[in-house]
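Hi R.,

Here's the chain you asked about this morning:
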Amino acid sequence: MNDQDNKSIHQIEEELKKSEAQKNAILNGITTNIAFVDKNLNIIWVNKAAAESVKKTPQEMVGRACHFFWADPSRPCPNCPSLRAFETKKTEQTIMRTPDGRIWEEKGEPVFDSEGNLIGVVEIAADITERVHMEEALRQSEQRLKFVLQGSQLGFWDWNLETNEVQRNERWAEMLGYRLDDIEFTVKQWSDFIHPDDREMALKSINDHIEGRTPIHRAEYRMRTKDGRYKWILDQAMAVSVDKNGKVNRMSGTHTDITSSKLDEEKIKSLLAEKELMLKEVHHRIKNNMNTVASLMALQEDSLKDQPAASAALKDARSRVISMMMLYDKLYRSDNFQQTSFDEYVSPLLEEIINNFPNRDIARIEKNISDFMIDAKKISPLGLIINELLTNIMKYAFTGRQSGLIKISASARDGRAMISVGDDGVGMAESIDFASSSGFGLQLVEMLTDQIGGSMKIERGGGTKFTFEFSL
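And the predicted structure, written out as C-alpha cells:
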C-alpha cells in the first residue's frame, strides 16, 4: 500500500468521524429518547435525552438491556415494540406505562444493512404523560358539557368562522322538529330558516359581536320548523377564540326554545292593555260623575243665595270635588296610573280654584314649582290640602285690599317633598292653629297631612305661609 492509498484511507476515516460526530450532535440535541439495540435488546448507542431520563450517562447504559432501565430489569416489557420489530421486520408501536406512573409512546424502527440484513432496531420513546392527561381532561370537560347541555335542554352550536363549518347537538335539531342526521345547515341556510321579519336583526346582532361592538350576541327571533310553523328561539353566543390580529375566528352558543314564554308574555301584555283600558274608563266615569255632582252643587248653591252660610258651604264642597275631578281627568289622560307629574296636576288646579272666587282679579300667583313624580295615592290628598289653603287665602287674606300675592313653591330631594303656600295678606291670628281651629278647612288640612305621613307648620309675619313636608 503506497502513501497515496494511506492518505485516502485516512481521509475516509476522518469523514466517518465527522459524520459520526454530526449524527451524535443531532441525536443528542433531540429531547425524545432514542436508543439503538441489538436482537437481545442490548443498547449499542443511546442519546443524551434517554440517558438523562434515567439519571445515567450513555456510557453506563451501553451493553445493557434497555428494559433494565425503563421497566422490569429481569425481562423485556410486555408487547415490546423493539422485539416485535425484530420479529416482523416492520415498524412497531405501542403505549407503555413505567412503574413511576409515566406514560410513554414507544416505537421500534428496524435498521437494515446494504444487503437487506436486519442489524438492529432504533427504539424511540416519547414521554406523553402530560399530553394524555390534557386529552383526558379535555374529554372529561367535553363530557361534562354534554351532560349539562342534555340536562338543560339547550341546543348547542359551534361555528368555525375560518372554515365556515358549524357543528350542532341533537337538541338543536330537535327544537325545529328534525334529527341531527337529517339537517345540515351552513351559515347561509341558517339565516334562511329565520323569519323574514327577524332576519336582519338576528344577523346584525351576531355581526356586531363578531366585529367587537357588543360583548355578547343575544337575540330573540323566530325559526321555521320542519312542519312549517315558527318557534321563538333565544340565541346567545360569545367568541371562543380570536386570531393573532384579534379577529374572532370561532364562536359557540346556545339555542333555547322560548315559544311558551313568548306566548305568555303576549298574553300578559294583552291583559295589561285591557286593564289599562278599563282603568282609563273607570277614571273617565269617576271624573264625569264628579262633574255631575259639582254641577248639582252649583245649582243648589244658586238656589241658596238667601242663605249665605249654606251657599258658602256648598261652594267649598264643590271646590273640593273639582280638585278630585281634575286628578281623575289627569289619570285618564296619563299612561301611568301609579304616578303623575306634580306640576302638571297642580298648575291647572290653582287656576281652577282661584277662578271660583269673585275677587280673583286682585290675586297674583307666583309659582316656583320643580316638577317631580308623585304617587297617585298621595296626589289627591295634596290637591285637597292646596284647595283648602287657597280657599282660605281667597276668603280672608285680602280683605279690604285691592291686590294680593300668592306664592306657591314645591321641590323634591332625597325622597322627600316640600310644598309651601303663602300670601302677603292680613295674616292669621296667633290664636288660630290646627289644634284649636274650629273651622272645617284647617281640620281637614291636618287630617289629610297625617294621612300622607307628612308634617305641617305655619309661619306668620307679612302674611301667612303654610309649609308641609312628606316622603315621596
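Residues 262-337 form one domain.

Let me know if you need anything else.
M.
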